[in-house]
Structures are given as structure tokens and as C-alpha cells.
Design goal:
alpha/beta; 3 domains; NADP binding; 6-stranded parallel sheet; Dihydrodipicolinate Reductase, domain 2; 11-stranded mixed sheet; elongated; Rossmann fold
């Protein structure tokens, strides 16, 4: 039993009182005895930084302050928990805390994706901890396994579904046959999509998380700007029909990969895009707002982490895990994992990345069209694995062309892009409907 009178409490400042911040404050207060036993000292909430001080926030008025600078500067604050976002003013507050030797816990993925180096350097200079498990995939433990459990292994690939909003939309399209607009409207009505869903549906959120994962997995600083990104706004119900016929579904994937060329030179690839995934692949069955991350390492093989990737309570769980670690280090005099960037691997441009592709196009319905289309793939040494062709009819039931779906073997993005440009210039091709990658196969 911990004797609270015999040990110095660990003072905590929480910045932000939204869904996550409110849950963190509740857990600190409700689980005080258990937390004290796990840490070796009691946690004491010193204050909560908010934009608006009012008595309707569910926290004693005396703990609320809109002066964040003063709060993080207090001598009785040992750990700062940043949950306010966005990049600013969070960056300023975290730097101020670290410069004063305070440990920091954050869930701010956007900030970590652009300022990891700056924050890590500040933490190192102050001999303070910087924890950010909650910045990727909510309650799912991903950061700690990569930084600690797999510290002695070589990570080859990290791929996953890391955005609940887009996964809910794509799952609804797959299950109901709805188009993108209808599925987005349903997600908004249910609270899964923000009023402005751009960060989610255009892949910015997933790209920030991919940057964090790639940085840790490959011991190389990777920023959000290094991540190739495509969103889901152009995915159609027809794409899902084709995916189903191919034994696949469609998911927005974040992929971080160690690329090794024939000369043994290594590069890092980090990319986000919608892709066809075979139904037998473990990520294909991750539906709704759930997230999952698959890690492949040389010795450990394939590991999968699955669970709720967002929401107040799940994200607060990850925050509290970091808070306990940071507070325990304060009590015991230890340090958490530091930034590892020794590899300094170059970033591989998307054009060099080999992947399988799905290309859908509308064409004229006459002899010789298929051979013309196939010739453009052949000119650029893009091997075709499968072709599907179906006739189309207009509103009056009259034939009005055909739709061709081509699935390729592995080819570089550059070769495929050149092929698509050439196809668009053919007289027999009226439109290119979709170009999607096919992930999760070895062909």
C-alpha cells in the first residue's frame, strides 16, 4: 500500500477539455488509489488549460485556467498532458513545458507529424520524456511495441487502417452499395465525420499517422510532407462491384515500408491511398470505425493490432498509459524511449514503388478496342493479370459502350502513370474511371 504522506505527489497539468481531456481528468480523479499504487506516488491534478473558463465544464472552477503559459510554468507541475491541438498553440505549450524539464504526453498527431525532430531535441536537451502513443490509432498500442517490444528486431513493413471515419464510409459502401456522398452523409449524421471532413476523407489524418509510424519503425525522421497521399472521394460504388467480383474489398491504407533495391540500398516508403484488399487478408474484415495495424518484422513475423482507433474513452486509455509511464519515470528517476533516427534512410518517391493496380475505363464497344488497350500496357512493360469487360446501356436500354477493368501484376507507379496517360489519349477510351492499387498479394 502506498503511503501518500511519504512520497512526493506527481503534479499533472491537462491542456484541453474536449472528449479526450474530460475523460483523462475523470480517470485521474476516479482511479487515484490504483494509479498511485502503479506509479509509486499519487497523481495530483494541478490545473486544466481551457479556452473558456466557466462553471459548466464538469471540473472545479478553481482548476480551470485560460493562461496555458502560466500553467505549464508552475513549479508543482511535473507532467503536461497536451490534448488541445491543433499544431499551434500546442507546439508552443509543449516546447515551453519541455524547456522547463517537464515530461509531456500528447495525442496531437498533426503536431508530431511535422515537429517530431524539434520536440525530440527539446526533450533530449531537458532530459525529459515525450510520449505520444495516443497520436496513432487511439487505444490500440502501436507506438510502444515498435519502440520497445520490437527494439531488437528489424521492421520491414507497417500497414493499416488508421482512420475510423474513412473506414466507416468505405465499410458502408461495401455493405449497402451506397455511393460515396450518401455514405459520407450517414457518417456525418452519426457523428463519425466532422462538419468539415477534409482531413479524414482526403487522407491528411492518415498521412500524419503514417509519418509517425514510419519514423519509429525505420529509425528515420519522416514528416507528413514525405507521405504520398490520396483520399477516398473518387471511390465509386462501381469500384466496389468490381472489387467484389475480384474477391476484394476497398480500404484506405497507410503503408510504411522498407524498400531494398538490387544493390542492397535501403529507402523508406510512406504512403496513404485507397486500395483493393483480398477478402482473406486480415485488414479486409476490419469494418466500421475500427482501426487495425499489421506489423511485419524479420524475426517476429506478422503481428496485428486491432481495436477502437478514436473516441474519448479509447484515446484517453492510451493517454493514461503514457501518463503512468511518465509519472513512474519521475518517481524512479528513469527515462522513456528517446528518438531513434540513426538510420537516416532516404525517402523513396512514389514513382519507384512497385504495386499491383486496378484500372477501370469506359471504352467504345467495337472490335479491336481490347487489343489497343492491352498494347499500351505492353509498351511500358506493365503485365496484365486479369481483364473484365462488360457492356453498358443508356437510360433507354440501348448499348452505349463498354466498361473494361484491368488488373495488373506488380509494376512501378511511374510505369502505370504513363500507361494511364496514354490510355486517356486513345480515341477508343472515353474516360478513365478509377485507378486503385491492389495490396495484400504477392503476385
Amino acid at each position: 500500500m502506498v503511503n501518500d504522506n511519504a512520497v512526493k505527489p506527481v503534479g499533472v497539468a491537462v491542456l484541453g477539455l474536449g472528449n479526450v481531456g474530460s475523460e483523462v481528468v475523470r480517470i485521474i480523479e476516479a482511479s487515484a488509489p490504483d494509479l498511485a499504487a502503479r506509479i509509486g506516488a499519487p497523481l495530483e491534478l494541478r490545473g486544466v488549460g481551457v479556452r473558456r473558463v466557466a462553471d459548466d465544464r464538469g471540473v472545479p472552477l478553481g482548476l480551470l485556467t485560460d493562461d496555458v503559459d502560466a500553467l505549464v510554468s508552475r513549479d508543482d507541475v511535473d507532467v503536461v498532458v497536451e490534448l488541445m491541438g491543433p499544431v499551434e498553440p500546442a507546439r508552443k505549450a509543449i516546447l515551453a513545458a519541455l524547456e522547463r524539464g517537464k515530461s509531456v504526453v500528447t495525442a496531437n498527431k498533426a503536431l508530431m507529424a511535422v515537429s517530431t525532430g524539434e520536440l525530440a531535441q527539446a526533450a533530449e536537451a531537458a532530459h525529459a520524456d515525450l510520449y505520444f502513443e495516443a497520436a496513432v490509432a487511439g487505444a490500440i498500442p502501436v507506438i510502444r511495441p515498435l519502440t520497445q517490444s520490437l527494439a531488437g528486431d528489424t521492421v520491414l513493413r507497417v500497414a493499416g487502417i488508421v482512420n475510423g471515419t474513412t473506414n466507416y464510409i468505405l465499410s458502408a459502401m461495401a455493405e449497402t452499395g451506397a455511393d460515396y456522398g450518401s455514405a459520407l452523409a450517414d457518417a456525418s449524421a452519426l457523428g463519425y465525420a466532422e462538419a468539415d471532413p477534409t482531413a479524414d476523407v482526403e487522407g491528411f489524418d492518415a498521412a500524419a499517422k503514417a509519418a509517425i509510424l514510419a519514423s519509429i519503425a525505420f529509425h528515420t525522421r519522416v514528416t507528413a510532407d514525405d507521405v504520398y497521399r490520396e483520399g477516398i472521394t473518387k471511390v465509386s460504388s462501381a469500384d466496389f462491384d468490381s472489387a467484389k467480383a475480384l474477391g476484394c474489398t476497398i480500404k484506405l491504407l497507410a503503408i510504411c515500408e522498407r524498400i531494398i533495391n538490387d544493390e542492397g540500398q535501403q529507402r523508406v516508403s510512406a504512403r496513404v491511398y485507397p486500395a483493393l484488399v483480398p477478402l482473406e487478408h486480415p485488414l479486409a474484415s476490419v469494418n466500421g470505425a475500427f482501426n487495425a495495424v499489421v506489423v511485419e518484422a524479420e524475426a517476429a513475423g506478422r503481428l496485428m493490432f486491432y481495436g477502437q482507433g478514436a473516441g474519448g474513452a479509447p484515446t484517453a486509455s492510451a493517454v493514461m498509459g503514457d501518463l503512468v509511464m511518465a509519472a513512474r519515470n519521475r518517481v524512479q528517476g528513469g527515462r522513456g524511449p528517446r528518438e531513434s533516427k540513426y538510420a537516416e534512410l532516404p525517402i523513396a518517391p512514389i514513382g519507384f514503388i512497385p504495386t499491383r493496380y486496378y484500372v477501370s475505363m469506359n471504352v467504345a464497344d467495337r472490335p479491336g478496342v481490347l487489343s489497343s488497350v492491352a498494347a499500351e500496357f505492353g509498351k511500358r512493360e506493365v503485365s496484365i493479370a486479369e481483364v473484365r469487360q462488360e457492356g453498358m446501356v443508356d437510360d433507354e436500354g440501348l448499348r452505349c459502350g463498354a466498361r473494361i477493368v484491368v488488373v495488373t501484376h506488380r509494376a512501378t507507379d511511374a510505369a502505370l502513370s504513363e500507361t494511364v496517360e496514354a490510355l486517356a489519349d486513345l480515341d477508343v477510351v472515353s474516360s478513365i474511371n478509377s485507378v486503385l492499387r491492389l495490396e495484400g498479394t504477392n503476385e
